[in-house]
Amino acid sequence: MAGLDPATLSDLLRVAGAPGFDRLHEQIRRTGGCAAPIRLSGGTKTLDPATRTLLHAYTTDAEPGGVLRVACGNRRASRCPACAWTYAGDTYHLIRAGLTGDPAKGTPHTVRDHPRVFATLTAPSFGPVHNRPGTRPCRCGTRHPEDAPELGTPIDSGTYDYAGAVLWNNHASDLWRYFTIYLRREIAARAGLTQKAAREQSRVSFGKVAEYQRRGAVHFHAVIRFDGPEGPDTPPPSWATLQLLTDAIRAAAARVRVTVPADPRHELASGWGLQWGDQIDVQPIAAFGSGEDLTEQAVASYVAKYATKAAETTGAVDHPVGNKEALVLLDVPEHPRRLMEACMDLDPAYPNRRLRAWAHMLGFRGHFSTKSRAYSTTLGALRQTRADYRAAQQRAALGLPDPDDHTETTVLVVAHWSYAGHGHTPGESWLAANVRRDLQDNREHAREYHAQFAASAEEEW
Fold first, then answer.
1. Where on the tree of life does the source sit, at the highest rank (predicted)?
2. Which of 11, 37, 306, 459 could cross-link to 427 by cystine, CB 3.0-4.6 Å?
């Protein structure tokens, strides 16, 4: 408890000495140490509809504070590290299922034999920025260290196209949508087929995640996979090669262009022609890591890592901001501040793009993690599996019948919940943070143990 401020320490002592502390600790642990849990009041009744017998009743009246705490589910690591860890884990399994196959998640193991690549599509230049170009010095003449605060900021902020940068972010999802359209056209053209014939013989599946570069521009990482006409359960045709997919991706990205009309108040009277940058990286994904750098494990881990991050990695804030004065009070660094100000300045000219509302995202308004329908399972399905598992544990503990036993015994659950607030007191926050760290340490130790056990078993084999 060293280093605690007096207010937090005082509240922690109050929490620890209050009746029901053990139950409070259990609630916090069940949320994984959620930083901002939702507080609910109410209860449930489990009835036998045939006999009208009450099988079980639960109410929050006896809970600490008269509420039940449930995890907030926020994906942002800056908001809730505990829920972000769960979200990252779900994203990892979603992406990995589409690479290695997992029949329980809707993809057969044969997808490993399908051509698939890891593609990165970036934004164009909006002006020179400080960077670390390999062994060469930056354009400014300095060799910047890895943690230099000027990395990603303009060399000349007076000539940097801040308006173009935020408009590009704002239309990035549109650029991706057009890319997927052109990709199918390019595939058909390279296969010597009509688009209808190509669709009848193959399907393109993908899972992607958005990431912010240091300069504040969004770019996309995507796993793109060739499937047969019925999706991952069918093999792709012989013409659907890795090289054809790679060439089609590059050609499709080069064709995409979104035109944004000019803002009459802006010096660029011709408007903006938004397109992908020249740096398009397409790498094949190795099935078993036989000497290749980009393995299935590495790709799934990379995508999961960035699924929980957003514009706060550039120095911006992780919540909406109403006006420019607030940016000064929040001490936002100059470069992200000017990007956010550009959103606010451009908002009246493009009211349908909601630039002011998305200023904290530097204009980006799309989903950070998306996938095509046939790629693999869904985040919702993974959450439902976890909820079903916990419900089964609860039924077993209470001795209630399992609805999947296909017996004549059924139950009726009547629930009533009301929102009673969210978040922790200072003392509860300290307790939740420690619970989260303990759980994380336990997971890391378990992971290391299993890795060592697997390595040992492989050597003996």
1. Bacteria
2. 11
